[in-house]
Design goal:
This protein is 40% helix and 18% strand. The chain is α/β, with parallel strands linked by helices. The protein has 3 domains: 2-62 and 171-245, Rossmann fold; 64-169 and 257-300, HypD, alpha/beta domain 2 (Rossmann fold, 3-Layer(aba) Sandwich); 315-357, no CATH class. The strands form 2 sheets. Strands 4-3-5-6-11-10 form a 6-stranded mixed beta sheet, sandwiched between helices. Strand 8, helix 13 and strand 9 (243-245) form a beta-alpha-beta unit. Helix 2 packs parallel to helix 13 (222-238), helix 8 (118-127) packs parallel to helix 9 (144-157) and helix 9 (144-157) packs across helix 14 (257-266). The longest helix is centred in the middle third of the chain and has 17 residues, at 222-238. The chain is globular, with a radius of gyration of 21 Å.
C-alpha cells in the first residue's frame, strides 16, 4: 500500500490545494477526460478543495457511457442468438439498450459470460468449436491492445468461431469535438494517464496549439489530480498552452510503440458515433481489412436496429459537460444505480454513478451547500 499511500497524503493534498488557491485570480473551467479521474475527484472531494473560480467539468471519458445505443442493441441481438457465447467485461452487462440489457438476455436463456480478458474469450472459442464466441471490445486506447491481440491470436490459430464486436473510441478527436462545440466552455484538459501510457502524448501538441489550451497528462490518485490541476492553473494564469506530463512514472512521450504497431495492424480509423454526443469524425477504430473476417457485425449481419433513448435521461448533456449529474431532473429519483436510465448511472466510471454513490445530490457547480 505504501506506493498508493504516498499519493494520498492528506497534509500534502491540503498544501497543494492552498497553492492552487494562491495561484488563482480568474475563473477557469478544466475538464478531466477520464471517468476514473471523475470518480477519484468526487470520492476524495478534490473539487470541494479548489477555489470557487476553478470548476471541474466531467468529460466523456467513460467508454461504457459513450458506447452508442445502436451498438448496445446489436450486442443484445447477437447475444440472444442460439449457438452464441457472448463475452464481455462485467460493467457492460447492465448498460441499458432500447428495451433490455445483457443481464436480461442472460435471464432469458442467452449464453452471456463475464470474462476478465479478451484472451479468455479466445480460449472459450478453442474449447467450444461448435459455438460462435463473441467478445464485446469496448474502450478507449487503453483497452485496445488486448482486444487487438485477441483477434491476432485467433487469426494465427485459425479460429473460425471467434469474433469481436468493436466499440473503440479515440481521445484526441473527442477533445477537438468538445473544443469546436458551440456551447464549449472548457479552457484546459487533464489527459487520462492510462491512455497516454499506451499512446504517449505526441499527438497532443497540435491540439494545444490549435485551441490554445493547456493539456496535462494526469494520473488518478488525489495528489496526481491536484498536481495536474495546479499545472493547468499555472499555465492558464500565465497565458501558456502546452502539453505537460504530470504522470512521468508511467507515461513517456512516445508511449508503447509495440502496442501502437499492433493497433495499426489490426484496426483502422473510422468515424464513430458517441452515445449522447453524435458522430465524431475519425474518432474510432474498426477491424482492418486483414482482420475483417472477425468482425461480429458483419458475421451476424445485425442491421435494421431501431433505437430510442429515455426521454427523462440527460446523460448526453452530462457526457458533453453541459450539466452536472444532479442537474438532471431524473437523477436520484427515476434514475439510480439499481434502476439506471442511462449509461452514466450504470457504469462504474460514469459521472452520475459517482455523484450518486458519494452523495452529491445538489447541483451548485458540483459543490455541496455549506
Amino acid at each position: 500500500m505504501k506506493y498508493l499511500n504516498e499519493f494520498r497524503d492528506g497534509e500534502i493534498a491540503q498544501r497543494m490545494a492552498r497553492e492552487i488557491h494562491a495561484l488563482t485570480t480568474r475563473p477557469w473551467k478544466i475538464m478531466e477526460v477520464c471517468g476514473g479521474q471523475t470518480h477519484s475527484i468526487i470520492k476524495n472531494g478534490i473539487d470541494q478543495m479548489l477555489p470557487t473560480q476553478v470548476e471541474m467539468i466531467h468529460g466523456p471519458g467513460c467508454p461504457v457511457c459513450v458506447t452508442p445505443l445502436e451498438l448496445i442493441d446489436k450486442a443484445l441481438a447477437i447475444a440472444a442468438q442460439p449457438g452464441v457465447i457472448f463475452c464481455s467485461f462485467g460493467d457492460m452487462l447492465r448498460v441499458p439498450g432500447s428495451e433490455a440489457d445483457l443481464f436480461q438476455v442472460k435471464g432469458r436463456g442467452g449464453d452471456v459470460r463475464v470474462v476478465y480478458s479478451p484472451l479468455d474469450a479466445v480460449d472459450l472459442a478453442v474449447k467450444n468449436p461448435q459455438k460462435q464466441v463473441v467478445f464485446f471490445g469496448v474502450g478507449f486506447e487503453t483497452t485496445a491492445p488486448a482486444n487487438a491481440m485477441s483477434v491476432n491470436v485467433a487469426k494465427r490459430r485459425g479460429l473460425k468461431n471467434f469474433s469481436l464486436l468493436v466499440s473503440h473510441v479515440l481521445v484526441p478527436p473527442a477533445i477537438e469535438a468538445i473544443m469546436t462545440a458551440q456551447e464549449n466552455q472548457v479552457q484546459a484538459f487533464l489527459l487520462a494517464g492510462h491512455v497516454c501510457s499506451v499512446m504517449g502524448y505526441w499527438e497532443y501538441p497540435p491540439l494545444a496549439e490549435k485551441f490554445r489550451i493547456p493539456l496535462v497528462v494526469t494520473g488518478f490518485e488525489p495528489l496526481d489530480l491536484l498536481d495536474g490541476i495546479r499545472r493547468a492553473v499555472v499555465q492558464l494564469q500565465a497565458g501558456r498552452h502546452e502539453v505537460e506530463n504530470a504522470y512521468s512514472r508511467v507515461v513517456t512521450r512516445e508511449g508503447n510503440r509495440a502496442a501502437q504497431e499492433l493497433l495499426a495492424e489490426v484496426f483502422e480509423v473510422m468515424d464513430r458515433a458517441w452515445r449522447g454526443i453524435g458522430v465524431i469524425p475519425r474518432s474510432g477504430w474498426r477491424l482492418s481489412p486483414a482482420y475483417r473476417e472477425f468482425d461480429a457485425e458483419e458475421r451476424f449481419q445485425v442491421s435494421g436496429i431501431r433505437t430510442h433513448e429515455s426521454q427523462l435521461c440527460r446523460s448526453g448533456d452530462v457526457l458533453r459537460g453541459a450539466i452536472k449529474p444532479a442537474q438532471c431532473a431524473a437523477f436520484g429519483k427515476e434514475c439510480t444505480p439499481r434502476h439506471p436510465l442511462g449509461a452514466t448511472m450504470v457504469s462504474s466510471e460514469g459521472a452520475c454513478a459517482a455523484y450518486y454513490n458519494y452523495g452529491r445530490f445538489l447541483p451548485e457547480g458540483g459543490r455541496l451547500a455549506s
